[in-house]
Design brief:
The complex is a heterodimer of chains A (about 475) and B (about 625).
Chain A lengths: L5 E7 L3 E3 L5 E11 L1 H4 L5 E8 L7 E15 L2 E11 H13 L8 E8 L3 E9 L3 H10 L9 H12 L6 E8 L6 H13 L4 E6 L4 H11 L2 E6 L8 E2 L3 H14 L2 E10 L3 E10 L3 E3 L6 E6 L5 E9 L5 E14 L4 E15 L7 E2 L1 H22 L4 H18 L2 H17 L4 H12 L16 H8 L2
Parallel strand pairs in A: 2-19, 4-7, 4-9, 9-10, 10-11, 11-12
Antiparallel strand pairs in A: 1-3, 3-17, 5-6, 7-8, 13-16, 13-18, 14-15, 14-17, 18-19
Helix pairs in contact in A: 2-3, 2-7, 4-5, 5-6, 8-9, 8-11, 9-10, 10-11
Chain B lengths: L9 E3 L4 E4 L2 E13 L2 E10 L9 E8 L3 H12 L8 E7 L2 E3 L4 H8 L14 H4 L7 H15 L2 H7 L6 H10 L1 H7 L5 E3 L12 E7 L7 H4 L6 H20 L2 E3 L7 E2 L5 E2 L5 E3 L7 E2 L16 H17 L19 H8 L10 H16 L1 E12 L11 E9 L5 E11 L4 H15 L9 H22 L4 E2 L1 E7 L2 E7 L3 E6 L2 E4 L6 H7 L5 H6 L25 H4 L4 E2 L5 E5 L1 H4 L4 H10 L3 H14 L6 E12 L2
Parallel strand pairs in B: 1-7
Antiparallel strand pairs in B: 2-3, 3-4, 4-5, 5-9, 6-9, 10-13, 11-12, 15-25, 16-17, 17-18, 17-19, 19-20, 20-23, 21-22, 21-24, 24-25
Helix pairs in contact in B: 9-10, 9-12, 10-11, 13-14, 19-20
Classes of the chains: A alpha/beta (about 475), B alpha+beta (about 625).
């Protein structure tokens, strides 16, 4: 028997549930880890960089600017001309140059560059990272643009470039600093990205709308970064660290040895899938609009863990199959597709209180981390109308976070609480940080190593059948 | 000792007879595993002792020798004879026990498989190289079912085919219903052989026998009925008290089994298997109705878990459901002041925020006390007229109301009417001084005893009398006063103004008329009817300002009319205080009629005064009405 590319462990939070009890929840942990051979492969990468080139990107955020004494008008605002400083766009351009000159990319890594403001254009199509000259030329063109923000136009171009690329780790990286005029279109496009298995990594700085960016990254299983000019605290990222983020993204994409993960779930009557959340290594909620559900990627060097939340109606006492889970996925490093045939989820429903008390603490640990993110979300929602309530929710979230040992998130929550205490509200910037922080890296729960799980053969051997 | 031969296993299932020490029992019913690893049976106690015919029901619990029952034995030992734990009738260890045997053999086979469901990846390697992205759901299900039926051993299928549907059976069903399945998009139901939940391959068992609480007296049943907040709190306090006591002995109670707790004074616990030594760590995560959420991640046993249990129980009392069925961090709490705060804190997902048990108990006791206090709200209405007499152009009547919250639990209301008399505005001043004096006097600190309140009222009258005597040369006043501290009413009265109590449509005068005509009526010299037209009916026998010092008994209290110094007010009672200008023209029954038939208190007062005016209003007329609304608890 050949070794499967992806090891999968399915663990319900309870194997035994009370019978004849309405409105129960069942949490199923889906833990994925590529086998050693696959883990050692490296995926080719295909990146589309979407750069906001609207007027506000010319704001100086780094360096040591010196006023020249001249002023000029742009987009109805008056700016003091300075020299020696770096604009947001300068930082982005420099980061991109760093990346292509780093020597970490080879001919298997391809890059496209798209600018968007009122309009969008592809400055360079998918080009091997080794063709440094054409990429540099395209980067240089970025400063020829200015205007408003229509992100959807850029996303459309990125999607058409990436959609038909297969067996490679794809990524759309959006760098934006403002509100876009075509929010609805962006949300719909994100759905297409998700269906095509293309994660969106959103890098937001300044007055961007975090709900939109969160929606884009969440729905596509991507990641969201809150970039700040100046000191970065907790889960924030300093703009100077942008090159690192790009490297990190490329690294991660190379390690995404399994991608295009799609989940098929069928259930018996009375059981309904509510929610699919990736809970490790970071958090993302996936939309459940159409089967198979795209659920992103799996890294080669670590586990990727999902929590599936089901509603379970009252059932009589019995041991029964209540759902089947199946997966399909790409293994880009070996240019093949893989499949996990539908697996039965079997739960025993038991009459009598107290009998079904056992729960899997690892699964529950992830469920709890997922719940903390919701607390933080609720807190930011009520912060303006009821700062006291928000304060309490954040305090609960913080204390639970401390127990979990998530330091970066704890720090973000501390800052948010302090601000709330002092000003009775949460500023837009802090709201972004704390919301994104709660969606960021999670803490790995103690568990038996996936590799120590019993194989089918071992189970048969032990049970003597 | 044992009623069965030692080499044969002891069989425990319905209708079996067992001997446990001196107790013969007949097994009646199986309750299931109410605590992990412990089997619960309802038994009938057939006493060996032929002297007593014992119809008692017993609770027989069977579990592993080192398990929860053994822990309960240790706990019982450390508690000694504790009256709120049901007596242990007998316990013994049996070398070999079979529980509900028909299932047992298969359970043993299954014990080896006590692992989380690990579903290894499919072995069909062909699917990997198959690059077609269209994987049809139906095909997958079928292939999976084939796989399933493959690895169910034939032997097992044979054994269970008759009683339990197996995947084998289901496969046929699926084929039959294939079209329906594609239509409904639901998976076909498939059943599997049930697993033994708690692997316990040792047949040696510990048996514990206690009485079984009568079903109708259990907390389980009690919770199905509605009770007052006080009653709910009383039971919660008892539970908290017990859990606090265990906690003091370093045991943590993490779950309630309501079927095995008898409600009463005291409530009695029949099962202690949910108590664990503080500091120990559960072997796996635990989720159950009263379990604190941190148990789901196998947190070590600590006091806040017991506080959570009390909170969850209290929540259940006030919401008829448990707080966190699905491990969410938030839940709705009814906005009941104090209960809301207690629940919010006791059920906090952060254990450190929960009250320690001893503090919780004190808070619950305090809360119950507050709930037992009657909440009284007063409505006040008044009207006063100088009348129509050409010889009276000023109003010599005065009146007033004073309301004050004495503490969380006690409120005070005082209503007074004074009818002054004397020439040159002297009467007006006298009644004014009387009202002002009694309304402005500070409330003494020590005010709870009836006697001290009565003494205080007399002192008010003395003070008013002195003040009037000093200030007013030739005049005086009547003074009628009602004082209600919470629902306890007292009166103090001098003169011919009147105090009435109107209760459930019945009016009663609770003051005396200190007048000449009243004396004549009392001594039988004239009839009550004659008194109404008597020329001397304005002559008072008692008033303030007419004597230097009020003698003992000068001020009338309730003892003269009700034999008690105070009376207890009832919901909707109305107190009326009026000067003789009112009752001289509108008789008692008429007054009552206005208040019984009127929509509002004020309109009844106004109607009465209008009637006085309609009848000539030869005197000043003042009517003050106070109505109380009494609510139990908050």
């Amino acid at each position: 028997m050949s070794q499967q590319p992806l090891k999968v462990v399915i663990t319900p939070h309870r194997e035994f549930m009370p019978a004849d009890t309405a409105d129960q929840k069942l949490f199923i942990m889906l833990k994925l880890q590529p086998n050693q051979e696959i883990a050692n492969t490296r995926s080719s990468t295909t990146f589309a960089f979407l750069i906001d080139t609207s007027g506000s990107m010319y704001e100086i955020v780094a360096g040591n600017p010196q006023p020249t004494g001249h002023t000029y008008q742009q987009d109805g605002k008056t700016y003091n001309q300075v020299k020696g400083g770096m604009t947001k766009l300068d930082v982005v351009m420099e980061s991109l140059r760093n990346l292509i000159n780093s020597g970490r990319l080879d001919e298997n890594d391809r890059i496209a560059l798209i600018q968007f403001d009122d309009k969008a254009s592809t400055l360079v199509g998918l080009t091997p990272a080794t063709e440094v000259n054409s990429l540099e030329n395209a980067i240089a063109k970025l400063q020829d643009f200015s205007g408003g923000t229509c992100m959807g136009r850029g996303m459309t171009q990125a999607l058409s470039l990436l959609a038909n690329q297969t067996m490679t780790s794809r990524r759309a990286l959006i760098f934006t600093d403002g509100e876009t005029f075509d929010e609805l279109e962006c949300t719909e496009l994100a759905q297409d990205f998700a269906t095509n298995g293309i994660p969106i990594t959103a890098l937001g700085i300044g007055e961007y709308k975090e709900d939109l960016l969160m929606n884009l990254s969440d729905n596509t299983g991507g990641r969201l970064y809150h970039v700040v000019a100046g000191n970065a605290k907790g889960t924030q990222v300093a703009i100077e660290a942008l090159p690192d983020i790009l490297f990190e993204q490329v690294n991660q994409a190379q390690q995404e040895v399994i991608n295009n993960l799609a989940l098929n779930v069928s259930t018996v009557r009375g059981v309904k899938l509510n929610r699919v959340t990736r809970v490790y290594p970071d958090q993302a909620d996936f939309p459940l609009s159409e089967q198979p559900y795209p659920i992103g990627v799996a890294l080669g060097n670590d586990e990727t863990i999902f929590i599936l939340e089901f509603n379970v109606d009252s059932r009589p006492g019995s041991r029964a199959r209540i759902a089947q889970l199946g997966l399909t996925y790409d293994v880009p490093g070996q240019k093949q597709r893989g499949e996990l045939l539908p697996q039965n989820v079997i739960i025993q429903f038991i009459a009598g209180q107290g009998s079904a008390a056992q729960a899997d603490e690892e699964v529950m640990g992830y469920v709890q981390q997922r719940n903390i993110a919701k607390l933080v979300g609720d807190a930011t929602k009520v912060a303006d109308s009821n700062p006291e309530q928000a304060q309490k929710l954040l305090e609960t979230a913080r204390r639970l976070t401390v127990k979990m040992g998530n330091k970066a998130m704890e720090e973000s929550l501390n800052d948010a609480q302090e601000e709330l205490r002092k000003t009775k509200k949460i500023s837009a910037g802090t709201r972004k940080t704390v919301k994104m922080g709660s969606k960021g890296k999670t803490v790995k729960m103690n568990s038996d190593d996936i590799n120590e799980g019993l194989s089918q053969e071992q189970i048969r051997e032990i049970s003597g059948t | 000792m044992s009623s069965h031969p030692d080499n044969l296993p002891l069989i425990i299932r319905a209708k079996e007879y067992l001997q446990i020490d001196s107790f013969s029992v007949e097994v009646m019913d199986y309750f299931g595993l109410l605590t992990p690893g412990v089997h619960y049976f309802k038994v009938k106690l057939l006493s060996d002792d032929s002297d007593t015919i014992s119809p008692n029901l017993g609770l027989l619990r069977v579990g592993s020798v080192e398990g929860s029952l053994n822990r309960e034995l240790k706990l019982r030992e450390s508690l000694g004879d504790y009256k709120i734990v049901a007596e242990l009738l007998a316990h013994k260890t049996e070398q070999s026990v079979l529980i509900n045997p028909p299932l047992l053999l298969d359970d043993l086979e299954d014990n080896l498989q006590e692992q989380p469901i690990i579903l290894p990846i499919a072995e069909n390697s062909e699917s990997l190289t198959d690059n077609s992205t269209d994987s049809h759901q139906e095909e997958n299900i079928l292939s999976q079912q084939e796989q399933e039926s493959d690895h169910i051993p034939q032997q097992e299928i044979d054994e269970f085919a008759s009683s339990i549907a197996t995947p084998d059976n289901c496969l046929e069903l699926t084929n039959d219903l294939d079209t329906e399945e594609t239509n409904s998009n639901y998976l076909e139901e498939e059943f599997y052989e049930e697993k033994n939940i708690f692997a316990d391959d040792c047949s040696e068992k510990l048996l514990l026998l206690t009485y079984l609480p009568a079903e109708e007296k259990t907390i389980h049943n009690w919770l199905k009925e509605n009770h007052s907040s006080e009653e709910y709190l009383s039971v919660a306090i008892q539970i908290c008290q017990f859990l606090a006591y265990l906690n003091k002995n370093n045991w943590c109670f993490i779950n309630l089994i309501p079927q095995l707790i008898k409600v009463g004074k005291p409530s009695i616990f029949f099962d202690l298997t949910t108590a664990y030594p503080i500091g120990e760590t559960p072997t796996c995560g635990l989720i159950e109705e009263y379990y604190a959420p941190e148990l789901a991640t196998a947190h070590e046993f600590h006091e806040p878990m017991a506080s959570y249990v009390v909170g969850a129980f209290l929540y259940q009392c006030f919401h008829q459901k448990l707080p966190l069925p699905n491990q969410e961090l938030e839940f709705d709490i009814h906005p009941i002041p104090r209960i809301y705060q207690l629940l919010k804190i006791c059920l906090s997902p952060v254990p450190e925020e929960r009250f320690p048990l001893s503090q919780l108990r004190d808070l619950l006791v305090e809360t119950r006390k507050l709930f037992s206090i009657k909440k009284i709200q007063w409505q006040v209405a008044s009207n006063s007229t100088i009348g129509l007499s050409t010889s009276r152009l000023s109003n010599e009547d005065n009146y007033g109301v004073r309301q004050q919250q004495l503490s969380n639990s006690a409120s005070l209301i005082m209503g007074v009417v004074a009818d002054g008399m004397g020439g040159m505005a002297q009467g007006e001043i006298a009644s004014q001084i009387a009202v002002k004096t009694v309304l402005e006097e500070p409330i003494p600190q020590q005010f709870s005893a009836e006697k001290s309140r009565a003494d205080w009222l007399i002192s008010l009258f003395q003070k008013a009398n002195e003040s009037i005597s000093h200030t007013v040369k030739d005049g005086g006043t009547t003074l009628s006063l009602v004082l209600a501290i919470s629902d306890s009413l007292m009166v103090a009265h001098v003169g011919d103004s009147r105090i009435y109590l109107l209760r459930q449509g019945e009016i009663k005068q609770i003051s005396e008329d200190h007048s000449l005509v009243a004396m004549l009526v009392a001594s039988g010299q004239i009839t009550p009817a004659e008194s109404l037209e008597h020329p001397d009916r304005n002559i008072l026998t008692k008033s303030l300002g007419s004597t230097r010092r009020l003698s003992e008994g000068y001020v009338q209290d309730l003892r003269r009319t009700t034999n008690q110094l105070s009376l207890t007010l009832e919901d909707n009672d109305i107190l009326l205080l009026c000067s003789d200008g009112v009752w001289d023209l509108v008789n008692t029954e008429e007054i009552a009629e206005f208040f019984i038939s009127s929509q509002s208190l004020q309109s009844a007062v106004d109607q009465t005064i209008d009637r006085v005016l309609a009848r000539g209003a030869s005197d000043n007329a003042t009517l003050l009405a106070l109505q109380c609304k009494i609510q139990q608890g908050s």
